[in-house]
Specification:
CATH class of chain A: Alpha Beta
Structural class of chain A: alpha+beta
Largest sheet of chain A: 5 strands, antiparallel
Helix content of chain A: 25-40%
Oligomer: homotetramer
Strand content of chain A: 15-25%
Shape of chain A: globular
Number of helices of chain A: 9
Number of strands of chain A: 18
Strand order of the largest sheet of chain A: 1-2-3-7-4
CATH superfamily of chain A: Chorismate synthase AroC
Order of helices and strands of chain A: EEEHEEEEHHHEEHHEHEHEEEEEEEH
Radius of gyration of chain A: 21 Å
Distance between the termini of chain A: 35 Å
CATH architecture of chain A: 4-Layer Sandwich
């Protein structure tokens, strides 16, 4: 059973390898008759693209997408939307001497162990390059949801190393994120982040981080217990993200320290709508959306590609020392921001369509 | 698209409500010819069952399972294994005055919002009672894996409130857990946990906690990138567990504060097998098992059922004050221990069979 | 990947073996708030049950169903509906000497070849007994559809051996079928059928047949090309039925002999609705329902259980002669009638909910 | 739930429309390490391509495929194989005046009814053009199976109109098919077929037909009862084929007229292997392969695109007369031959991998 897709009603299948001629996605289940805003899709892809500044990789990725099916006179037809993104601007040279050695923290060894063969260029299938088509698909999901529910999503860097943004989840505005080269909304601490990244970059080292995401205007009722819960499905795609090592929703791990009295969100009615006074649940109860903002965080480890000398072994089991060449992100969490938005959009769109099928028309 | 199943090759579908006549599961995809150890299944169910002591609910749950299909002369036939567990020993009285009011922290409101109707007794479908069939199914998965790989799984309470066990992941033995009425392996701090639980129970309050799980002897190669990664699938079922609010693997959220140099696990060869010197990855790289122990943690919020007075609303939108009756767990994390083991076994067994199908026979 | 389910939005999973303590089904995806008519479900089960008359098996099957989950005060809750049917009134004695021999025309050999083990009593998993839970699930599907679309389904025996009913598809009424002990609507030829069955029964032989099914009031638009087409999905479940060897829709195999001019159904408008003047398509074009009646036929081979002497081999590869004991249907097509209705209802209900999810709300 | 895929372990997703810039498929679940024979894939595509002779459409389809992912140094890597086929050599002019009218026998009306929008050029998504990527995917499936089981598949035209080939299923050789411009293996009757096609072509009319397919060297044990039976899955994809109206396996519809004594295939042992003396079952019992040749037939209606005048309606419900322009196949069954082979290969490969996962390694 292959695992190249997300979603059941809105299904996104991603194909390709880092250094192949192209990468892409087939998006199935998009409702018909939607006029897609191509600029919006490109805008999200541009957010994912590495810039020329220090913090992120300077690899030249021209992420121009092409939609080659599923549209008729600019509108979706309900049939699969095939998106192709050409690969170029890279060189395979950085990887030739890595073809038989396992980079620490990377998936070289596990792909070899699983498949007995692997594409060694740029990490092949395991490269974060494959998040580009995910971002394009997510931008479509967000447009479907925006039409249906007024959906609004915003992710940003919450933490880099031990520098934590002090802006509360509900108070971050899109401008706060766009105005920062490192997607960090806390202006007072942004300098600290930049200095840290600069220092590590110079050392050839890298650092972990945390991304926070807030989704507003998701109606109550999305999520399919017992096992396809909305929070469970978000956790799955987020922990599956390159470099991700943890997921928490609402109060998350800190809720372990709270009592029931402290943690329960009391219900009230506001403007005729049931709400919770607080939102420690993070917008999900029993795996179903409450109608309150969905708030979650994803922890990322440091980029494993560092130019410091590391011990490892090669495919013959011989000890090797490696230093990874090339220009890599110092903190993958920063570039993960639009990918987190895309994956959350896809998951929520999928649950929107599932809800419509089973419960939406009484 | 209903969400009542886990797994693709090894599929577990769970049916039932807390206070119906019975609950159960259909387990599909179990390979044929396996002689099931029924005592082992009952033992896991007994671990989940509330005891008569303070920390966990004293509700009388006689979790006797019956396998009504899929076996021939004690061996699996490769056809669906249907397991039925009768419900008894409960009273619906505790819930009759809750039929139109939304308990804070529970799924009453979201089920009502989604389905427009809900079974109000004992939480109906959203009850933790539904984890009993999951535990039975998990015990079967563990037996399949034990035959195939020497699989060994151990979960325990890592933290209750702010009391943290200081025993390192690799050092906990099954006896350390079984010897504790609260599944807490740190003998020195167990008294602290018991005192905390006793105090909260008396107050009618509850507390959160963290469960840690270590899985050994999972060969390298399980997991299906890009999107059905082993860690992603674990995250999905764990965050979907009643009361769970977070999941982390290996160094998890703490890896956000580490540099690449600190966090990368260097490879070495030991007894002819590729290993990592450290295991901050928690046994998974690129979504595929490395062969090292899989180590993860799940954060649980406090039991939302507290007997303290809480504000809420009813289905007419009127303000209400409620005090929840009945005997509830003070800390759900404690009873979640065998459920975490069961869910992890199911996920890993599913990936074992998927691996066999695509990569296992060259 | 287990294959024990039909449907994606409306999913029916069937468990059990012919001579186990019970058999059953888990029905997922039923929309909430539907008041199920239990008598209607029982009525369909009774149609499947063998009567005491000659043509069908006299095995005593008391098919009383019990719904043990998914209902609250008589209404569906949107959660899985678990249905259990007890097995009784059978004896295992007829099968003990068949435990190591392969009955011609049965699945004994193929189950053994696939699983290396099989339940030999009454055919175990491969028994037509397993169609009982399918009929119960189908009766639920039909009720969902009746509420949504005015759905009306009618199957009957079109042919037994070479005796063909001359009543045209659209002209058969439910009474014509119910009034016949062999579900054969052509009163003039019914005697011929009964005489044939009687003769074969006496000889210990059996005969094949064809079932025809007409489904009315299915709106245009159900079916999911390219590969989950409505006719394809019908074909799959029908050919998968015990003893089925063929499926055709509309003009079917006879369309192979027609020219385009003869076969094309011209469009017209009637009462403001697009219709086709003729219906050689059988209600489906391009895999999507046209709104015209869906008409299809299923060919069944003769019951393989005959009491005439047959040559075969046993599990050691030795030649054996067998004579099958017990009271078996002379023509399985007759009892297949309510099962064909059930399977068609399930498939169409599944497509109804899929349609609602993707296209139903613009 | 979108329906753009076939298979569960070996999954083929097809995207594109007849007159878009390209069409393609994503093939998931291909085992790693297989050296693909590209010529073999092209050969199958060429068989599907219309030639320049009378019987089939003269539309210029240059079906050159490109594999853009999933290969490393010529070998499969176990990751998705993305195949792109450029569209060219067509003109949209033939379709502009058909944009608002429903062609009889085509899917114009049903796509419009379902999606509320449709790509009118060349039938858009419903075009037989979309079988090109299916053929490429099927050629990969056949190579996987050939490596594993010595798999051998052969389809051919059994019947055109009422001209039936008299060569028995087991006696047709690949040369008999390749040597015929109409894939008709009966040399004596081929002239009759050609004359019929020529006459109908001149009249602007078309004709139906039947394709027969024989698959050898499929081991016993493939198929997943109760509902993913091998014959059921074959029926689904075959009936879903453009223009298909029926499917039968083994004796098929003719088995309805046989008695149990006539129809049952007796078992015997030959060269240490269990076989059946006859093969009226067509290689499948109880939904599982027997190890005997799989023999099935698919009925096709006449090409609905005829240049004779037909009555129909347009999207405003007005009566219209149309004559379809362009050069269309006189008998679609002829060109369906390689597509039938491809779909059967895909289904059997899928079941091969499912078998390996659940039952293949004891």
């Amino acid at each position: 059973m292959p695992g190249d897709s997300i979603g059941k009603m809105f299904r996104v299948t991603v194909w390709g390898e880092s250094h192949g001629s192209s990468i892409g996605t087939v998006v199935e289940g998009c409702p018909p008759g939607i006029e897609l805003d191509m600029n919006e899709i490109q805008k999200q892809l541009d957010k994912r693209k590495p810039g020329g500044t220090g913090p992120v990789s300077t690899r030249q990725e021209q992420d121009r997408f092409e939609i080659v099916s599923g549209l008729f006179e600019g509108k979706t037809t309900g049939t699969p939307i095939s998106i192709v993104i050409k690969n170029h601007g890279f060189t395979k040279n950085n990887y030739t001497d890595l073809s038989d050695v396992y980079r620490p923290g990377h998936a070289d060894f596990t792909y070899q162990a699983k498949y007995g063969i692997r594409d060694c260029y740029g990490g092949g299938r395991s490269s974060a390059r494959l998040t580009a088509p995910v971002v394009a698909a997510g931008a479509i999901a967000a447009q479907i949801l925006a039409g249906g529910t007024g959906f609004r999503i915003l992710a940003y860097v919450k933490k880099v190393g031990s520098v934590n943004s002090d802006i509360a989840a509900g108070s971050v505005e899109p401008e706060d994120v766009q105005g920062s080269s490192v997607n960090f909304p806390d202006r007072e601490k942004e300098g600290e982040v930049l200095a840290l990244l600069k220092k590590l970059k110079r050392q050839g080292n890298s650092i972990g981080g945390v991304v926070e995401c807030v989704v507003e205007n998701v109606p109550a009722g999305f999520g399919e217990p017992l096992f396809d819960k909305l929070d469970g499905d978000l956790a799955k795609v987020m922990v599956g993200l390159n470099g991700a090592k943890g997921f928490e929703i609402g109060a998350g791990f800190s809720s372990a320290e709270l009592t029931g009295e402290q943690n329960n969100d009391e219900f009230a009615v506001e403007n005729g709508k049931v709400v919770t006074i607080t939102n420690r649940a993070g917008g999900v109860l029993g795996g179903i959306s409450t109608g309150m903002p969905i708030v979650f965080r994803v922890a990322f480890k440091a980029t494993p590609s560092i130019s410091l000398k590391q011990n490892t072994v090669d495919s013959d089991g011989k000890s090797r020392k490696i230093q990874i060449k090339g220009d890599h992100d110092t903190c993958v969490a920063i570039r993960a921001v639009p990918v987190v938005e895309a994956l959350a959009s896809i998951v929520i769109c999928d649950h929107f369509l599932r809800y419509r099928g089973q419960c939406g028309v009484k």
